[in-house]
């Protein structure tokens, strides 16, 4: 019998059967690689076209910034300062004589106004009337004495002539000249005593020295007063004064002839304006503030439609010299750090340290940047996000 033949190397001897699976793997790998390469090439060549619009957009669009075109020019300086309204005249009336109050004016109350010469307080005056009568009696007696002495002097002169003696007597007592001089001096003293008594009698009536406002009352009906006791504190109503303090820069902006310069006093609480004028200066620097004081007067403050009350704090505004080459910018454009921002020709932010020369109604007048030769596109409302060189989109007039 023929033994079965066992072929143990069939797989190894068939090259087609042994390489089949490996060839398929390589084919899949190569196909996948070609596909990925194709996709990458497609994406690479398509990306510039897709991003080009965005890049172009990035050039044209930046941070929107509202701007206003400003240019240096000449502007009259507005000088502003704060001050308190005070009466030009204030007096504490005091009793000049002793006495009991017998009459007290019904208007002698704080807040009331009185006219010049109006009776405020009347003191009991019987003792002063008696004193006046006595001094007048003394004057009458002095007149009699003087006439008698003058008559005696005339008689003495006649007797001397009748005596036949030549020249003048050894003593002027012979002709009674000293006696006449003494009588005349006594008369003058008596008349002066009358004047003093009349003055003391007049002082029993305490009257207002000028039109004024009763600020405080220090007496009551029936009270006794001694010379020097306070009676009433009176404030004048004709002229009020405001003392405003200016620094050296503000003072330099005043007109050369600043006296009688019109001044507008603004009451910030009610918004009223009152016409006033500058009258004088302190000619010294205040010790604490090192500022110089300008005094402003307002006449007839209670005669205006809206009275200006004493004690009010007001803002004084006056027009000074014209300053050249300054920028007029809104207050919102001037930062707390003293910076102003503008947009350059390349639409990028720039800033400069601006010196505020003076302030107006919602505006600030500042020095322009040193390199400014043309109009500036000023950023109206800068904020914390501003940085130098930042690309922006200026929006004019917004």
Describe the protein:
With 398 residues, the chain is of the alpha+beta class. It folds into four domains: 42 residues; 173 residues, Elongation Factor Tu (Ef-tu), domain 3 (Beta Barrel), CATH 2.40.30; 60 residues, RNA polymerase II/Efflux pump adaptor protein, barrel-sandwich hybrid domain (OB fold (Dihydrolipoamide Acetyltransferase, E2P)); 79 residues. The chain is built from six helices and 21 strands. Strands 2-11-14-13-12-15 form a six-stranded antiparallel barrel. Strands 17-16-20-1-21 form a five-stranded mixed beta sheet, with no helix packed on it. Strand 13 and strand 14 form a beta hairpin. Helix 4 runs antiparallel to helix 5. The chain is elongated. The termini are far apart.
Q: Secondary structure elements and their pairing?
A:
Elements lengths: L9 H4 L1 H4 L1 H41 L2 E8 L2 E15 L2 E5 L4 E6 L8 E2 L4 E5 L2 H37 L14 H26 L2 E3 L4 E6 L6 E2 L4 E7 L2 E8 L1 H5 L9 E6 L4 E14 L6 E8 L13 E18 L8 E5 L5 E5 L2 E4 L3 E4 L9 E4 L12 E5 L2
Parallel strand pairs: 1-21
Antiparallel strand pairs: 1-20, 2-11, 2-15, 3-10, 4-6, 4-9, 5-8, 6-7, 8-10, 11-14, 12-13, 12-15, 13-14, 15-19, 16-17, 16-20, 18-19
Helix pairs in contact: 4-5
